[in-house]
Amino acid sequence: MIMNEEGKKEQTVSGNELGQGSTPTGPTLKEKVRKKEASASIGKGTFEEEISRRSFFSWLTIAWIAFSAATVAFFAMMMRFMFPNVLFEPPQSFKVGYPKDYTVGQVDVRWKSKHGIWIIRSPEYIYALSTICTHLGCKPNWLENEQKFKCPCHGSGFRKTGINFEGPAPRPLERFKIVLADDGQILVDKTKIFQYEKGQWNDPESYLVV
Amino acid sequence: METFKHLVNILAHPTIMLTVGMLVFLFFFPPNDWFEKWNRRLRLNFLWTKKGFYFVMFLMVVFFLFGLTDPNFSLIIKKPDNVPIIGLIFFVFIFLWISMNQALKNDNLIEAGEKPEEYNDPEDKVLVWPDLVYIEFIALILCMSLLLIWSIGLEAPLEGPANPAESPNPSKAPWYFLGLQEMLVYFDPWLAGVVFPSLIILGLMAIPYLDTNPEGAGYYSYKQRRLAIPIYLFGWMILWVALIVIGTFLRGPNWNFFGPFEFWDLHKLVPLTNINLSEIIYIKWFNRGLPENILVREIFGFLIVFGYFLLLPPLLAKTAFKKLHQNLGNFKFGFFIFLLLCMLSLPIKMYLRWLFNLKYLIAIPEFFFNI
Predict the structure, then answer these.
(1) Is the pLDDT of residue A35 over 70?
(2) Which terminal residue of chain B has fewer beta carbons within 10 Å of its beta carbon, N or C?
(3) Integer Rg of chain B from CA
(4) Quick check: B267 contacting A, CB < 8 Å?
(5) pLDDT in tens, B11-30
(6) Is B52 helix (H, G, I), strand (E, B) or coil?
(7) Which residues of A touch B360 (CB under 8 A)?
(8) Closest CA to B203 of B332, B313, B324, B306
């Protein structure tokens, strides 16, 4: 609306100029309009007055800056939400006691709920298995009688070593870095993952020789 | 009675149930003349008459009432999660019956040279006010009272606080996703969880473009849509509803199969050891280790999958779907046959798993690519 009327006004102005030529006496209509525009600025306008092009753009600039600032603030708050003040996650690297605490041939399920690992003591070495099924991420259960890990979601089964042999799981369970700390305790680091299908289970950090 | 329960438990095993179900399906919904001949001979259309309706409803009600007397099956039936599925079983049959009943009536009329019933139906027109609004009002009150009774009568199936470290055993998806969960047992997550669901939606959207048969528009008819109805109902009845029923009633702890009257034994031992095609071929048949090179290792799987999707379409276009191919043209037919082959790959993969303990045709865990 506003832009239209402005446009009309300018058209009539230029029409005048073309028709009459430049009149030497007194200010032209165009100049009058310019004067009026110059005097119009933010805050002076009332409802009765027409909003000029200049004041329209001033308002638009302010509105646009305000909108951008609000948007930036909103996304900043969103991003802030991603970094909570307190993390309830257990640390990624932790000690799980001494090697003698683990019985040979046993799957230790003590750390499943807190740290998401199984510690398994085979006759030769100790290793830490991830409790996340490699199919769709459910938590399998250790079945002592059957000597296997069995996932309750789609029936994937894993041997004590972590090798997949049942159901849809496409690859074995992952192992975590396991070393002896200075005080003789076992230190598990979940940030370092060893995958069987990539041949990483031969890495000396993926198991602990006892 | 015990022998009957035992028999049902055996028959309920998906290998038997799905095989019988798919065969019976073809006779009830004949896709060609041969099946239709047998359909007539065995008088299977009895099912779509009023007597057939009462017969099936009676059988289903008796089965579930009988199930309530069994300590194991009643636990499944009474579980509030499963109530909608029992309702679904009845409603699927009721709506299927209504449309098939009307379709067969029309087929008889058309055969006699008359027009389908819908053409001269005086009750087809209903005044919005007051007739339609009145019907809607009654339906609204009935639905509201049903929901009220349901919500008061059945306790909400709430469980303990969420614990990311423990998955319930068995972990069941919401009932409407149980078909997808069953599909996930046989496929890699990216296929069964992403590609196939997208293809289902895409395929449903493509139906009006692929089904260009003008007959049967505006009225029910089976004979004039002898290809469209069986294909759709196969996907709906067998691959969606039946899998939901399997997931609800037959999947127990550790995601093992249990008969409806079987005790959900946490320690039921089922030998399910399965291996990949490459292992069957190289280790079992050739008696040697797997090749180092991934492409050489999986070449047979690739050949089978490519053969399935590249050789079968032209073959089917020249044989079983000759007429359809002429009607649709190469592009539309190609799209149609791709969707059909994808749909059929689910039962094929299920049978490969059940019969040959085959895990994946192509298994490249190194790149999360398993088919």
Answers:
(1) no
(2) N
(3) 24
(4) yes
(5) 998 899 999 999 999 999 99
(6) helix
(7) 170
(8) B332
Q: Which two tokens stand for residue A187?
A: 């230190």
For testing contact with chain B, the best of A139, A141, A154, A195 (most B CBs within 10 A): A154
Are residues B368 and A170, on separate chains, in Cβ contact within 8 Å? Answer: yes
Task: Render pLDDT for B48-101 as a digit per residue (tens, 0 to 9).
Answer: 999 999 999 999 999 999 999 999 999 999 888 888 889 999 999 999 999 999
- Interval B233-290: pLDDT, tens: 999 999 999 999 999 999 999 999 999 999 998 888 888 888 899 989 998 898 888 8
User: Complex ipTM, two decimals?
Assistant: 0.83
Nearest residue on chain B to A159, alpha-carbon basis = B273
A99 in contact with B, Cβ within 8 Å: no
CB count in 10 Å sphere of residue B237: 19
Q: How far is A157 from chain B (nearest CA, A)?
A: 8
Architecture of the domain delimited by A93-209: 3-layer Sandwich (2.102)
Q: Is A37 exposed, middle or buried (0-12, 13-18, 19+ CB in 10 A)?
A: middle
- Taking an 8 Å cut-off on Cβ atoms, the answer to whether A139 and B166 are in contact is yes
| Residue ranges of A 133-152 with Cβ closer than 8 A to chain B | 135-136, 138-141, 143, 145-146, 150-152
Query: Which among B164, B186, B255 has CB closest to A152?
Result: B255
Average pLDDT of chain A is 81
Contact A153 B186 (CB under 8 A): no
* Residues in B touching A167 (Cβ below 8 Å): 185, 255, 272, 274
Q: Which residues on chain B are in Cβ contact (under 8 Å) with A109?
A: none
What's residue B288's pLDDT? 86
Query: If DSSP states are collapsed to H, E and C, what string results for B186-248?
Result: CCCHHHHHHHHHHHHHHHHHHHHHHCCCCCCCCCCCCHHHCCHHHHHHHHHHHHHHHHHHHHH
Does residue B165 register a pLDDT over 90?
Answer: no
Please state, in angstroms and rounded to a whole number, the distance separating the CA atoms of residues A154 and B255: 6
Q: What percent of chain A has pLDDT over 70?
A: 77
Chain A residues touching B352 at Cβ < 8 A: none
- Residues 6 or more apart in contact with residue B4 via CB below 8 angstroms: none
Contact status of B370 with chain A (Cβ, < 8 Å): yes
Exposure string (b/e) for B333-359, b if CB count within 10 Å is 16 or more? bebbbebbebbebbbebbbbbbeeebb
The pLDDT tens digits of the residues spanning B123-141 come to 667 788 888 999 999 999 9
CA dist., res. B13 & res. B250, Å (int): 8
Q: Helix, strand or coil for residue A192?
A: strand
Ordered by start, the domain boundaries in chain A are 2-81, 93-209
